[in-house]
Amino acid sequence: MKTTKASGRYAQALLSISQEHNVEDIVLNNCKAMLKMFNTETDFADFVKNPTIAKSAKIQFFNKVFVEFDNVMADFLTLVVKKGREPELRNIARRYI
């Protein structure tokens, strides 16, 4: 799968903010868990990529599914959805790892 410049920038931003909060390893594990979901749950990948699903519904979904994620990661996921970059989440997680 082709990665974009945006996914690299978002991954770098996530790394920077996780370093500021000293949660790099926790966010790394969060990215691995999310990537595992992408690789094993096709419905999850389809949901994330679907542009007809409201952003608010996606944010609510992420907050429920990833309830154990660190606050830095949860806030990051919300930002990504609000910016309309959720189709890049798989690549962002790969780039972070």
Percent in helix:
over 70%
How many runs of DSSP E, i.e. beta strands?
0
Query: Largest sheet, described in full?
Result: none
Give average pLDDT, whole number. Answer: 92
The oligomeric state of the chains shown is: single chain
Radius of gyration: 12 Å
Q: How far is the N terminus from the C terminus?
A: 16 Å
Helix-and-strand structural type: mainly alpha
Task: Based on Cα principal axes, name the global outline.
Answer: globular
Q: How much β-strand is present in the residues?
A: under 5%
Order of helices and strands: HHHHHH
State the helix count: 6
Low-confidence stretches: none
Descriptive overview:
The chain has helices at residues 5-20, 24-40, 42-49, 55-65, 71-82, 89-96. With 97 residues, the chain is mainly α. The radius of gyration is 12 Å and the shape is globular. The two termini are 16 Å apart. The relative contact order is 0.24.
